[in-house]
Specification:
The chain has nine helices and 13 strands. By secondary structure, the chain is α/β, with parallel strands linked by helices. The strands form four sheets. A six-stranded mixed beta sheet has the order 1-5-2-6-13-7, sandwiched between helices. The protein has a three-stranded antiparallel beta sheet with strand order 11-8-12. The radius of gyration is 19 Å and the shape is globular.
Length: about 270
Amino acid sequence: MKNIKGRIPVIIAVIILILGVGGMMRRCSDTTPSVAVEYHKPGDDTLAVAIEMSPLTYTLRNDTAEGFDYSILRDIAAEHDVTVSFYPFSQLEEAFRGLSEHRYNLVVASIPATKALKEYFPLTDGVYLDKQVLVQRRDSTGVGPISSQEQLRGDTVWIAEGSPFGTRLRNMSKELGDTIYVESSPKYSSEHLAILTALGEVKQAVVPGAVARHIATDYPVLDISTPISFNQFQCWAVAPGDSALLDSLNTWLGQFRETPAFRRLAEKYL
């Protein structure tokens, strides 16, 4: 692992470019709790975890914490007698800064396992697979929904502000030899865009597959069958140099993925 002391601002800038952090900063900026949500087990030091506020990763429902990643880490901590303090965040930049400064041991979010990111932070083995999909109304074109990427030539799609999906769409434009026009707004998250598409206020959007499936259960008018990318592992980021934690998490995640509890969570959230 590279020596990153004194290079945190540069590293953060690179990570923002890699991940398109704007799209991940978007959620719940006015509602993020100012104190940790703690889950305690006696006997071990506290693991400080920065966790992304999102319906998939971590959210509060009737004052009860839930979410796919949150539930996995909560259950792993209980199984292995680890005390965890969860620090919800909406700005990934600050979470990675805290990780670089060792204020956090772990960042839990929708983080794609990219080679560039691994240059700066140890990444766990994949927690789950996800891909980008086109969200559209089934009656959006008058002749049925778009069924292939080639049909996006000269068309317009929406993405969350700063989303890494913008890079994929630009590359797709080059592959197709024609322009795909991309719109975004800091007001709209991926969840918002999927709902706006269902309501007919946005023609179509590119969002994470897990988000699309979640929204489509409430809005059956949506078609989410057209993939925009291949599956990619989503992982967690560990503080630089903490190989012991990384090894433990990989072991625990590997064991947990074989349990009925993981399968139940996957069925619920993915």
